[in-house]
Write a structure and sequence with these properties.
CATH topology: Nucleotidyltransferase, domain 5
Structural class: alpha/beta
Strand content: 15-25%
Number of strands: 6
Order of helices and strands: EEEHHEHHEHHE
CATH class: Alpha Beta
Shape: globular
CATH superfamily: Ribonuclease H-like superfamily/Ribonuclease H
Strand order of the largest sheet: 5-4-1-2-3-6
Distance between the termini: 26 Å
CATH architecture: 2-Layer Sandwich
Largest sheet: 6 strands, mixed
Number of helices: 6
């Protein structure tokens, strides 16, 4: 799975399924807080696992690519600052519940064109790169942001 976030939104790309997920940034995240947005996008990708499990597609190993070195470090070391801890716990809880191992690696932004286009709302560009792409919206996991009400920034 390949993830990306921008000041406009979040994009998740599952190339083997030709599936793109898009979401606006939650109101709790400042568009300038790229680390939190990138980390939440990774968490949201992990939260897709129970859906596939319910559909009979049990994924035991997940590879995640992110262009955020900070997110890669957080999910690799399983160590986060207090303000990011809920996000990390949320992702790990899903991985444990789904009996899934994962690996997260850094990918340079130029090798991340579909997720980048999705995160910026450039859907036509994403379709140009992957003509079989099916794009759906998603809501980031509520528990990843703590007890605060989840509100989404408008992408218009």
């Amino acid at each position: 799975v390949i993830t990306d976030a921008s000041g406009r939104g979040m994009g998740i790309y599952f190339p083997w399924r030709h599936l793109g997920l898009v979401s606006a940034l939650p109101a709790q995240l400042s568009p300038s807080d790229s680390f939190a947005a990138e980390a939440l996008t990774v968490c949201s990708a992990i939260h897709r696992l129970p859906r596939w499990r319910a559909a009979g597609r049990h994924i035991r190993r997940l590879a995640i690519l992110s262009d955020s070195a900070n997110s890669v470090a957080m999910y690799t070391t399983l160590s986060a600052s207090p303000d990011m801890n809920r996000m990390l716990i949320s992702a790990v809880d899903v991985l444990i519940d789904c009996d899934c191992t994962y690996r997260i690696d850094h990918i340079p932004g130029e090798y991340n064109p579909v997720a980048d286009a999705l995160s910026r709302g450039l859907l036509e560009k994403a379709y140009t790169i992957d003509p079989l792409l099916n794009i759906v919206t998603f809501t980031p996991p509520r528990d990843a942001l703590g007890d605060r009400e989840l509100c989404i920034h408008s992408s218009t």
